[in-house]
Design brief:
Blueprint (H helix, E strand, L loop, with lengths): L3 H19 L1 H6 L1 H12 L1 H12 L3 H9 L1 H8 L13 H14 L3 H14 L10 H8 L3 H10 L4 E11 L6 E8 L4 H4 L9 H10 L3 E4 L17 H7 L7 E12 L1 H9 L13
Antiparallel strand pairs: 1-2, 1-4, 3-4
């Protein structure tokens, strides 16, 4: 008697192999995309079976891998020359495919996984894709992914924190709001954008090793933080009620993209520009 679990696993593998070999999107995209798809198809048995074993009962994941996955990989790998396509390491492809099973409905995360897989297939940069990057993607939200796309491409950006400082000695202080950056709509030219949990997001990026926040140094330009007083977060703190012994003060600093963060950005297609701001 056949095992329904094994039958389900085999059905998924069969569908994806068929998609990799004959998907019309891949064929129409050109020979290098077709080759990328076929190269990926060769790894199905080694990197996809663990995914199928865990997630074959998730209908939406099954539909995604059968219907859209190959097109996503083809798009992500379109810039790779045919002769540079290599088999992705299972240590990256396996966990990435597993992560995709649970986040494929979130475009930002899906694109990160697809680009990371494509990077792992690019023989021109064999060490750029790192297994730890899969865990980074697993530990961020779609909203955090959008914020990362705004800050990682820049080597360093000004940041401020708001504190309630004791008037008498100017030393004792209470943290109020931390890691405020000048987020704006329309590619930085529009109205301020407020993210209610931006401090927690920035802390998560620091925890993951993508950025560092340094309040002992500042961007050298004199107007680097002139935006601070116009930020809604700072105005809100200015208008808050404090003990008579304290007043609101602004602490200026700088956020750096770490080497790990810059490599992650390049691996998922939002590479750092290298535009380093001077700091003092």
């Amino acid at each position: 008697m056949s095992d329904p679990v094994e039958d389900g696993k085999a059905a998924i593998v069969t569908e994806i192999v068929r998609a990799a070999a004959s998907d019309p999107v891949v064929k129409e995209a050109g020979s290098q995309l077709a080759r990328a798809g076929l190269t990926l198809a060769k790894t199905v048995n080694t990197v996809l079976l663990p995914l199928a074993a865990v997630n074959y009962t998730i209908e939406k994941a099954r539909e995604y891998f059968a219907e859209r996955f190959q097109a996503d990989i083809a798009e992500a790998a379109k810039s790779i020359p045919p002769d540079s396509i290599v088999e992705p390491k299972a240590s990256i492809a396996g966990p990435a495919l597993q992560g995709l099973a649970f986040s494929h409905e979130e475009p930002e995360l899906r694109q990160m996984y697809a680009k990371l897989l494509a990077t792992a297939m690019d023989g021109r940069s064999p060490t750029l894709a790192h297994p730890a990057f899969v865990e980074v993607i697993k530990q961020i939200t779609a909203e955090e992914a959008r914020l990362l796309a705004a800050i990682l491409p820049v080597h360093s950006i000004p940041v401020v924190s708001v504190v309630a400082i004791e008037k008498a000695n100017r030393r004792a202080f209470i943290q109020r709001s931390r890691h405020i950056i000048d987020l704006r709509a329309d590619q930085g030219k529009g109205e301020p954008v407020v993210i209610s949990n931006v401090e927690a997001m920035m802390n998560n990026f620091i925890r993951l090793g993508l950025i560092e926040a340094d309040y002992d140094r500042q961007i050298a330009a004199t107007n680097a933080c002139e935006w601070a007083e116009s930020r809604p977060e700072v105005r809100r703190e200015r208008e808050s009620t404090l003990p008579a012994t304290h007043e609101i003060d602004i602490v200026r600093g700088i956020v750096f993209t770490t080497a790990f963060g810059a490599q992650f950005a390049r691996a998922i297609g939002i590479g750092a520009t290298g535009a380093t701001a001077a700091a003092t």
